[in-house]
């Protein structure tokens, strides 16, 4: 009898996995802007929606994830909203359907020997500036800062250094003079005494000082064709992710870190918990994309990206709140 029950249980488990909805999700990096995605993983929310998720992490930054999406080697990307605008300027329909981070989360940190003074923007000339990767939102951050202050990208050297511990190491070892990055790198830099934060866009006030408004960043996006062909999968992914956002809003940084997959946690755990606490303000509470806020990344891109500046951008085609609007009103356990 026991053997029969074990065999039955095994067959049920096999059947469950056989009928699970497969979806490939790629993430631009394990910076904290993308945190709601691994939280949903850690809470088992994707599995509860009947999804079989295959994850690929591109530690070098969001631009690689975008390339994978456009090439068709992934179904959904965890990346930054501004990439949807870029793609529209290239006549490619990439659509954001859940917002993870409602604000930038970026900081500009200076190494111990940095002579850059934000009060004197011209002092950035000649600096080696670390960004996650060319074409990433950290790249946009630097270019927009330079443009707003009458400077150009030719006045600095932009160097891709990735995110997390690799980015901190680049600043610590003097490979770059300045670093534009996210938490946990931002918190680790100060905790280790590697450098200091010179410009901080994690807060709403900081973002407004840099961009002139709130700058939405991390979202889930997919091509319009994939969304049209797989609306049920998109809805399941949305349900799980929004429940993760709701759960994060009602739990502490310590509780959030407790639920994370181990590979997501970098460096000293206590410092990582502090980084999550520092980043909590940037996360969306409901996954909804704000039509007014997305005007800000458009203005940033138009200031230095010729393709975006000359294209007729229809922001209504870069996002949808349709799926967020259908999420059952049930908090994650």
From TrEMBL:
One of its GO terms (biological process) is alkanesulfonate transmembrane transport. It is found in: Periplasm. Keywords: Signal. Residues 1-20 form the signal peptide. Pfam families: NMT1_2. SUPFAM superfamilies: Periplasmic binding protein-like II. GO terms for cellular component: periplasmic space. Belongs to the bacterial solute-binding protein SsuA/TauA family. This is Transporter substrate-binding domain-containing protein. It comes from Rhizobium chutanense.
